[in-house]
From TrEMBL:
It comes from the Bacteria. This is DNA methylase. It comes from Caulifigura coniformis.
Length: 230
């Protein structure tokens, strides 16, 4: 059942993408990537973020079916991609050798083990514990921070979910890991409504509060922390 939700009015400002606010609710996925790739997102949020931050180049750390690559192709922005399914581990320093610097890093990781992508131990969805998943994501954050240009941003799309009866607040836990790595939010978190989610079409006997969104976190190097380093 579709219900209409009135969104709060956004203040008028000088943004080149005025419809980009802390709530992203666009139906459809656009002609980007594949809807058949499990757990994939659409391309509109990526397009809006790139249009807003205007990067000269993009690095996509977990490309899957190439949604970010397709957005970049449309916007005519050079994009480098990696994915563990092609043997490129975003948590390994050698994957970043000779890549150069990037204005925008996009990461759409597995939401821990909500979907198992493959049996490769290096795949983030293979992490045996929450702690191991967060440790690997922290390494990804450290390594991608190392290839950021001075105005560079790292955008991560991730959601919380219930794993064996225990809710896993992955976005919140990731913010804490990012801060440990000297990153700081570059703007508000963006709540992305998950229109067309497979689980939304199912019926469950149990009672719970359904999650209908995931969260995009945008980080940049924490200038204040750098300045305060003796
Ligand atoms: C949620 S999917 C991303 C889908 C993507 N947005 C698309 O356009 O199809 C997560 C991806 O992370 C990849 N992945 C998991 N662990 C990884 C790692 N350590 N390094 C690089 N990619 C990884 C998986 O192979 C999978 O393709």
């Amino acid at each position: 059942m579709t219900r209409f939700v009135e969104l709060p009015a956004a203040p008028v400002n000088a943004s080149q993408v005025p419809h980009l606010t802390s709530i992203h609710s666009q139906r459809g996925r656009g002609p980007y990537g594949s809807s058949h790739y499990r757990g994939n997102c659409g391309g509109y949020l990526i397009r809006d973020l790139i249009s807003y931050f205007q990067p000269k180049n993009v690095l996509d750390l977990m490309s899957g079916s190439g949604t970010c690559r397709d957005v970049c192709r449309e916007l005519r922005i050079p994009c480098r991609s990696m994915d563990i399914k092609r043997g490129q581990d975003a948590a390994c320093a050698s994957s970043y050798a000779d890549l150069g610097r990037f204005d925008f890093v996009w990461a759409h990781p597995p939401y821990w083990r909500m979907i198992r992508y493959n049996s490769d131990d290096r795949c983030l969805s293979s992490a045996p514990t929450l702690e191991a998943f967060l440790d690997r994501m922290q390494t990804v954050l450290r390594l991608s921070k190392g290839v950021l240009s001075t105005r560079g941003k790292i955008a991560i799309l991730i959601g919380g979910y219930s794993d064996q009866g225990r809710y896993q607040p992955l976005p919140q836990l990731l913010v804490e890991r990012a801060i440990r790595e000297g990153l700081w939010p570059a703007c508000t978190e963006i709540i992305r409504f998950q229109h067309g989610n497979t689980s939304s079409r199912r019926t469950y006997q149990s009672s719970f509060i359904p999650g209908l969104h995931d969260t995009c976190l945008v980080f940049q190097a924490d200038q204040q922390r750098k300045d305060s380093t003796p």
